Amino acid sequence: MADPSVVYSSVFVVDGKTSASLDPQKRRTGMAQTLLFVLLTMVLLGILIEGYFIFQLWTRNSTALAKPPFFLQEKDTDENEIKSIQAEWDQKKPKAHVTGKSGKLDCKEGKMFWESVNGDAFTHAIDYKDGSLVIKTEGYYFIYSKIFNGQMDCKTSAKGTFKHSVYKSTQWFPGDLELMSSKRYHCRNDKEDMLDISFLGGIYHLKEGDQIFVNEKIIRLQSTSQNFFGAFLI
């Protein structure tokens, strides 16, 4: 029989089969879930950042497209001022228009001579000399000429050739260079008189000092102010 005055300590029984650590399979599963969560978070964050930059870029482009060029902005200049500047520049461009002399046929050895002052004729930054237009500014020019050939009696006149040409004389090349020409044969009709018009036009590069002129080989040239010759810088 135990003595009641003696105190005995508690005795604990430890099961040796119980492990203090977690199951390795569960640990791997938990780590995989954590890693997957981190990856998904990073992907979503990347999408949000990319969307933000795309939105900023779209906003900037939309603003740039909606905003007019600086030279059209009201604070710099208005539309009327731009038109005024353009008109002033066009007025300064070299140009010339010479016409035939009414009642007087002025043609020597095939080279045409023109009225350069009166009527519709004028010259600006291009000189007129002895039937030629003398270029003072290098560039690309539109050159044109119209010749009116009329009142030819095909019943009595001999058949011949009509040739209307524009030539260039330059210090860079000996002789005259034919730029463009129109050639026809007469008579095309033996039953009635003929009225004919020849027009030439083209763009050519001209240098300072170059001279351009019209040469004609015509059976019968009608003397009229409707004949003309000109050029302008484009």
From TrEMBL:
GO BP of this protein: cell surface receptor signaling pathway; immune response; positive regulation of canonical NF-kappaB signal transduction; positive regulation of extrinsic apoptotic signaling pathway
Pfam families: TNF
GO cellular component, one term: membrane
Transmembrane spans: 35-58
Assigned keywords, A-Z: Cytokine, Membrane, Transmembrane, Transmembrane helix
Chief site of localization: membrane
PANTHER family named among the record's database cross-references: TUMOR NECROSIS FACTOR FAMILY MEMBER, TUMOR NECROSIS FACTOR LIGAND SUPERFAMILY MEMBER 14
Name this protein carries in UniProt: THD domain-containing protein
Organism, scientific name: Lepisosteus oculatus
Taxonomic classification: Eukaryota, Metazoa, Chordata, Craniata, Vertebrata
